Structure formats: structure tokens, C-alpha cells
Amino acid sequence: MGQYKNLITFQVEHQFFENSPGLNLKFELTEASITLVRNAGLIITASNQQLCISGTEASVDVISALAHESEHASEGDGDEENPHLSFKISCADSEFSSYTHVESLSRDTIPYLNNLDLDLDLDQGHGACQRRLHRGDCVGADDLEKLGSALLSQVLSSKERLVKPLAVVRLELSRAAGFDFHNKAWPVKEYQIVFAAPSRHWMYCIFGADQDATLHIKDLAGSQTFQYEGYKPLENASQSRPAHLYLSEQQLPLRKRSEFRFQLSRASDLGEQVLVNPLPVAQCRQSAKVENSAGEKMIQSHIYVNV
């Protein structure tokens, strides 16, 4: 038996977990991919966010032969598919959708990513290269596929069309995808996808300060500012209690461990008096509310603070 080496790695990143431990994912190969793994003697290992495919020189020879057959079949108008590994990604965390943003994602679409026609993202400097399987910085609208498309007909079950995986990935093992079968060293291919976290306008609702006009929110890093929206009764508060409302001028990203540090202060005869430091930050569990502001709709995360 030949010596096994790492041939392909696939990594999932998420902006929400930028400063903290990440996702606990599951990777499920399709039946056709499981057959290829067996026939080529590949070994699949998976961790929380990474899938690794290892094989021997004999494994590469098997894949090379299959790719060669596919190329000849295509020249003769055959419909032989290139050897490939397809898998579905799922996550047990029921709150995944609350801290994930995929532009234009709907009930009848799903992210579908493959390794064809990609630009080189990062040269690792040791013969390996890392490529993102999406055009933008994160998985987005250009990466979506209709659930009923031909590309997904042999991948998703009827149940999975109702309860969708997070994404479907297809890794072609062909020259078209950049595999050089004449190079016995076969430098490791490293692929990556990145999910985006949502950004929202943060609305601080400050209770218990009466009509103190000297209240203000300060960003200790000096990068964010809040617009005072007035002292108003809130319909969803007990007995419609009034609150001071402060709206962030910019959309702020949600993170599991946010680096934002805001404080609530007021003016006094002795100078600035700090009331709350730090203020709580927006959480993914908080419901985002669409409000009209200056005639426009925006998504807000409301943060309630008693002083």
C-alpha cells in the first residue's frame, strides 16, 4: 500500500465567529462520491469546519484514468461526468440563519459552489494554493442555485428540498479544475468558503433616565457615532414606557464576541458621569425590526438598557 498524503482540504469560515470558536458542521457525501472514494482508495476526515481528502499515488492514477475516460467521452458526444466529490454541508445550530447573511437567499434557492473557473486567491508558498469557491468576499447571490435545477437533481432528496442544507459543494477532479495528473507530487488543493454575518443599525433604548437631555453614547474607540432619536414611548415596552433612543449612524456587524465598546454617560456639575460601561452589544437572538427612518426602511437591532 502506498503512502497516504493530503490531496484536498476544504475549509468553512464564518464572519460571526471572527474572534471566537466557530461552527460545528457536518459534511455528507453523495452516493456517487462515496463510490469514488471507495474505488480510488481515498480517506475522508472531517473536523468542525474542515474536510480533508487523502490518497496515495494509486488513488491519483485511478482518478486520472476516470478523468481521461471522461475527456474522451466528451469528445465523442458522450455524457460521461468528470470524477468529482459532491457533498452537502449542514449545521445542528438552529440559530445559524440568525447570524448568517446570504444576499438574495430564498426558500427555493441554495448556495451551490464548485471549483471551476476560479481565480487564485492566495499562494501558500509551499506548492499549495488556496481558492475561494465564490466570486465575492462571502457566499452571495451569484452562488445561488434553484432547488429544482438539473445540477441538484441527483444531490438533494425531497426532504432536503424542504429542510435545506447550508450549501452544496462540488469539487471537480479534472484538468479543467486545475489538477495536473502528470505531477505525481500533486500539490495539495486548498478550498475555502466564507459565510457573512449580518450588519444592522443598532438602536439603544435607554429607560429610567427621565428626560435627561445630557445623556449621550460614546464609542471608546472613536469610530462609531449615534444619532439621538428623541425621548419616546415604546409600544412593546411595559405600559408603553418612554425611552431615550439612540440609533447608530452606520450598520454595525454582529459578532459572537464583539469588539465594540460603547458607554452611556451624562453631564454633571463634576463633569462627565459614566452610567453604563460597557453597554451591552447587539445579539443575533434579538429580533431585527424594520423601521422607517427619514422615509427609508432599515433593519435595526433594539438593545434595551435600564439605568
Q: How is this structure best summarized?
A:
With 307 residues, the chain is mainly beta. The protein has helices spanning 31-40, 57-75, 158-162; strands at residues 5-14, 25-29, 43-46, 50-55, 84-91, 109-114, 122-123, 129-132, 144-146, 167-172, 189-195, 199-207, 216-219, 226-233, 242-248, 252-253, 262-268, 271-276, 288-293, 296-306. Mean pLDDT is 89; it is low at 122-127.
Q: Please, could you describe this protein's structure?
A:
The structure is a single chain. This protein has 3 helices and 20 strands. The protein is elongated and about 85 Å long. A hairpin with a 2-residue loop joins β17 (262-268) and β18. The chain has helices at 31-40, 57-75, 158-162, and strands at residues 5-14, 25-29, 43-46, 50-55, 84-91, 109-114, 122-123, 129-132, 144-146, 167-172, 189-195, 199-207, 216-219, 226-233, 242-248, 252-253, 262-268, 271-276, 288-293, 296-306. Residues 122-127 have low confidence and may be disordered. The strands form 4 sheets. The chain has a 6-stranded mixed β-sheet. Strands 12, 14, 15, 16, 19 and 20 form a 6-stranded mixed β-sheet that branches. It folds into 2 domains: 5-195, no CATH class; 199-306. The chain is mainly beta and 307 residues long.
